[in-house]
Amino acid sequence: MSLEFIRERSFQVNDLTLAAKEWGRSGYAPVIALHGWLDNAASFDRMLPFMENLHVIALDLAGHGRSSHRSRDSSYDIWIDIGEVISVADQMGWDRFSLIGHSRGAAIAGLIAGTYPDRVAQLALIDGYVPMPSEADDAAKQLKKAIRENKRFANSQPTFFPDFEKAIQARVKGFVPLQQEAAALLAKRGVSEGSRGFYWANDQRLKAASFVKFSKDYLEGFFTSILARVLLIQAENSVLSPGRQQNALFEWIRHMDIQKVSGSHHLHLEGEAEDVARLIQKFLV
Prior knowledge:
Blueprint: E1 5-13, E2 16-24, E3 29-34, E4 54-59, H1 79-92, E5 97-102, H2 104-115, E6 120-126, H3 139-154, H4 164-172, H5 180-190, E7 191-194, E8 197-200, H6 216-223, E9 229-235, H7 244-249, E10 256-261, H8 273-284
Parallel strand pairs: 3-4, 3-5, 5-6, 6-9, 9-10
Antiparallel strand pairs: 1-2, 2-4, 7-8
């Protein structure tokens, strides 16, 4: 029986409320799904109905969708998400679970699997890679850039649109282009209406640079610690196709299967959703 959307959920993590969509039933294989940058939990709406025998919590990561924005004295460096996702697993009573991650969510999922190798059973990554390492010589420049950008975006306003459709079209034509139907699904969850019009409700600080980036040695420590089996689905026409340096980083992961699928970066939300679902279903169950 295919997965059905059950209900909206929320989890209290520190001072944040993390929103989520719950799919499937308890008693089936537990999975937490992590969306990409500036997306939300609706990222998996087209893929999950093609899957079965799973119990999935698709999160709105902090600052995205219907989840809380982090406080002004915090940031959106991806390692902060690790503890928040583990807290959700704890509240679900899941000592061991699998992760599905797309793009930024895939990077977070990989770090979780390396930090908690005893808890992550399997790792399915959709067009998402190992974070690119940073050199120590660049640390001061990176920190200065992050301070400047976080201050600027903390005081910036989102772009307002006269109607809901214009907000959708902005995403269709965005940095990573999306098909109309895919953008509409994300907009239904991610666009709000205010006195000045419609706007994408993501925290503007998500656009700021990270305060610190991991060195190659740090990243190797995380990814060589992964015990889970890993499936990486690469989109053949992705704007984020890995180069030679990125492919070399995959060698750190012990049990990794790479599958290439036609489509663009959001292939799991577009016409290839069923193909992606079938691959992940076979891998997880």
